[in-house]
Amino acid sequence: MGMWLDTAIVLLYIALLVGMGLRGGRNVKNAKDFTASSGQYGTLVIFATLSASYVGGGYSSGNAEKAFESGIGTTLTLFGFSLSMIFIGRYLVPGVSRFPGVSTVGGIIGQCYGRSARLLTGIFSFICCAGVVGAQMEAMGLVFHVLLGVDKHMGILIGCGIVLLYTTFGGMQSVIVADILQFILLATGMPLLLFMALQKAGGPAAVLETLPKEYFNPFNGTTPAGFFSLFLTMMFGEALAPPYTQRLLIGRNPRGTARGTILSGLFSIPFFIVTGMIGLTAYALGVTDNAASAMPTLVQAILPLGIRGIVMAAMVSIILSAADGFLNGASVGLVCDAVMPLCPHMSDKSQLRWLRGVNVATGLGAVLLAFVVPDIFGILVLAYSFWCPLILVPLAAALLGVKSNGRAFRYALLAGLLSSLLWNYVLGKPWEVDGAIVGMACNFLVFVLCTKSFARYQSQRLTVWQERRQPRSRG
Question: Which residue blocks in 217-306 are alpha helix, DSSP H?
Fold first, then answer.
């Protein structure tokens, strides 16, 4: 009876989520509606949808898993993401005002660096976002398996079907409506789980006394270089990733969007502490020997009837909220920034069909990735390697108003891609430093050098033009 009640709560929540998502997207008639490029959302909506989008399986159950396995180290590295969000809100969001009417990362890149740069951005945006969706599908399969007793692969298919239903129908408008509901549930469900787990364990002090001493060492299981590499990966890995940048572009005004972004970064700090503590408490209580299932097993082991169903719904919500945003980011990035530049005369109805078709195809591809690669955190880090070493630096420069050209973008992208691949797969990650950080450093160096060369060229052209404009002296 108890299990049926908890399952009913989860099913009721899913039905409400899908219903709200479909209702939110009922007015989607064209591609502009699908991407929600009308710029109508205020501070609180930006805060809620941003927070729901980044809080996925990696930052919740993945964080709990790593805390269960090795202690506080991974939780501390996640604060890099928090700093990134705060800095973006403070220094980069004001630059959004330079791109009125733009709704995608590739739109910004194309305006600053040209058509080929936009096309490349669309392709790599798609790869990055599809990888993140794959990680969320893997997490969804695990959650459904542990909480509801569903086969893991069947859980992946169910989770994908739920997300595809409302994102394919309503695009970003459905995603935003769903994100608001998901944010409310995840912001209450995780603290509730921790509170009741700590009560069961005898309080925070009792949990800390149970932990091995090495769990308080941030470098446990890694090296200092590896720790700081992961901190930087969290800080830059998904900074300005397509779903987040899309949300910065749909705000009503830059000031409100900046406030929402900073609030989202601040919210992430206690959230990461809560999910990390959940993993440590699960270890202290000895609810499982499997670190990967620490959070869902804790839910099953200590929560009473009814409350367990609510927290189960919160865990489902966490994963769906990240999956839907990145799924939309993948389809919008590929169609708007890669397909459309190649087919500029495509009709609006054809654009909408493409967006929905790519959305479905990406979801199915993410399912395949989740079947093949079982490591949630590993999939996330791999997905980031197609973003920060390639696109982040030129995108940040564009938002800061730095003047450059397509050559700087292409050379920097090539340098970032080759150096990250060389570092990871030829040199084997020396000192446990991830290639994404090395690639981003090379991307930055090449971009700066090419931009300075471009600035000198522009200055010389201006000097020649001014000399030609000067009247010749008559002698």
Answer: 224-236, 242-249, 254-285, 294-302
Are 86 and 298 in contact by the 8 Å Cβ rule? The answer is: no
Q: Which two tokens stand for residue 256?
A: 């409100």
Integer Cα distance of 447 and 165 in angstroms? 41
Model's pTM, two decimal places? 0.87
Beta bridge partners of 41: 251
What digits encode the pLDDT tens for the residues 430-446?
A: 988 888 899 999 999 99
Distance (Å, whole) CA 374 – CA 113: 38
Query: What tokens were used for 80?
Result: 């890099």
Instruction: Give me the amino acid identity at 93.
Output: V
Q: Which range, of 58-72, 111-125, 134-148, averages the lowest pLDDT?
A: 134-148
Q: How far is Cα 315 from Cα 280, in angstroms, rounded to an integer?
A: 18
Burial class of residue 123 in the structure, from the number of CB atoms within 10 Å of its CB (0-12 exposed, 13-18 middle, 19+ buried):
middle
Say how far apart CA 366 and CA 455 lie, in whole Å.
Answer: 42
Could you tell me how many residues make up the chain? 475
Mean pLDDT within 211-229: 92
Angstrom distance (rounded) from CA 353 to CA 347: 10
Q: Which two tokens stand for residue 34?
A: 């699908």
* pLDDT recorded at residue 285: 95
**Closest by alpha carbon to 384, among 337, 425, 434, 430?**
434
pLDDT digits (tens, 9 = 90+) for 442-460: 999 999 999 988 777 666 6
Give the DSSP H/E element, type plus range, for residue 414. helix 406-421
pLDDT tens-digit readout, 27-72 = 788 888 788 756 678 999 999 999 998 887 778 888 999 999 999 9
Rounded-to-integer distance, Cα 200 and Cα 194, Å: 10
Distance in angstroms (rounded) separating the CA atoms of residues 205 and 285: 13
Residue tagged 């364990």 (tokens): 201
Is residue 463 over pLDDT 80?
A: no
